[in-house]
Amino acid sequence: MKKNEQYTVECVALTDLAAGVCRIDEEAVFVYDLLPGEKARIQIIKTYSKYAIGKVIERLTTSHARQEPVCPAAKWCGGCQMQHITYAEQCGFKNQWLQDLFRTYPLLPIRKAEEPLFYRNKAQFPVQVRNGKVEMGFYRLHSNTIVDTKECFIQSPAINKVFLWIKEHISLEQARCLRHVMIREGKEHIQVVFIGERNIDLNQFTARMTKRFSEIESVVFNENRRNDNVILGEKYDVLYKNDWIMAECMGNRIKLHFKSFFQVDPAQTEILYQTAIDLAQLKKEDRLVELYAGTGTIGMAMAPYVKEVTGVEIVKEAVDNANENVRLNHIENCSYICQDATVFAREYEGECDVLVVDPPRKGLSEEGIGHIERIAPKKMIYISCNPKTLRRDLDRLKERGYDCSILQPVDMFPYTTGIECVALIEKRKER
């Protein structure tokens, strides 16, 4: 195969990045916007030693799984990879990906979302000025080019309204000094975080914005002069009221700092956490340790079922949030400490009946796995947003005497390729 050559192909599978898989002379060609069973005329746009990338020139047949994307920017935006697939079929593809990945594990079907659109409670919109015009939206797939848009169909309606107002009213000078605008929705209020190199009259802009949107309870300028892809910097100034807003999770009120992690799909978060509680089969005498605790939402949800909860988180603002949330909800058997999870695991001397881990996408480090072995919990609940690192870690834990009993995926990210999973892992009984 050579670049710019055209072929007629049939798609035989869909990768976990939503690319159609075709074969030409036994070589794989990956084509976005092509579904299994569809035939198309394609053009080769990139070639590599073992595979090629193609694009659709003309679709010759149409899959029953295809739909017209609800979002007009879907073909260019890298935020949603599955807008062209019906929601039922999205879940079908995700089930298949997981079955292929977890062949020897006890996998259950994915739990679908009742509301697969307009569900996200947080957005980070990149900002740039091009050709004398402010552009805000999301990045193209595998690109730093912004797809300019007026609305995102997986963000909440409230976030979309504030986003569009900012986009239409921010000046060129202000936009040139910004990198991102982060907007987060709590139970009743909105938070806006301007992220960039300099604050150019954002105080006056904030006054206009909060007059227009009475639901805004927090506006922050976060200074970031780094030359990498890290979005948030260390320094910040509060431009309006607070650096936090109130949210709610599993019946608990959550004071949410703008730097703190919080699940982005409120409805599915309730399903995710209830799944974790159900699988853990918690007992009143259990001592529970939660690593990567964030604002403490999981530990607080589990606290009524156990004797005590100890949470560990490395982000100081999140730990302060978590302990404040414990006091706010009058939970007496739950506390959080600011420490690297690996260091905590190495130094922990207490007993642990249940260990809860919700690590970042990279999963658990090899050292962290070893320290978990040292803590020796009787069982674990592993919540993962990356099935591939989860599979790797389940294999590692299996070598150390811990077996996965149940694996329950939850569709936290409809219209994207993202999948969240809850795994129950139990210490193997000696024979």
Describe this structure in words.
The protein has helices at residues 87-101, 157-169, 172-176, 202-212, 266-280, 297-302, 316-328, 341-347, 366-375, 387-399, and strands at residues 6-10, 13-14, 19-24, 27-32, 39-47, 51-59, 122-130, 133-139, 146-148, 178-185, 190-196, 216-223, 236-241, 244-249, 252-257, 287-291, 308-313, 334-338, 354-357, 379-384, 402-410, 420-427. The chain has 431 residues and is α/β, with parallel strands linked by helices. The strands form four sheets. A seven-stranded mixed β-sheet has the order 9-8-7-10-11-12-13. Strands 18-17-16-19-20-22-21 form a seven-stranded mixed β-sheet, sandwiched between helices. Strand 17 (308-313), helix 7 (316-328) and strand 18 (334-338) form a beta-alpha-beta unit. Helix 8 (341-347) packs parallel to helix 9. It starts with 5 loop residues before the first strand and ends with a strand. 42% of the residues are buried.
Topology of this structure?
Elements: E1 6-10, E2 13-14, E3 19-24, E4 27-32, E5 39-47, E6 51-59, H1 87-101, E7 122-130, E8 133-139, E9 146-148, H2 157-169, H3 172-176, E10 178-185, E11 190-196, H4 202-212, E12 216-223, E13 236-241, E14 244-249, E15 252-257, H5 266-280, E16 287-291, H6 297-302, E17 308-313, H7 316-328, E18 334-338, H8 341-347, E19 354-357, H9 366-375, E20 379-384, H10 387-399, E21 402-410, E22 420-427
Parallel strand pairs: 4-6, 11-12, 16-17, 16-19, 17-18, 19-20
Antiparallel strand pairs: 1-5, 2-3, 3-4, 5-6, 7-8, 7-10, 8-9, 10-11, 12-13, 14-15, 20-22, 21-22
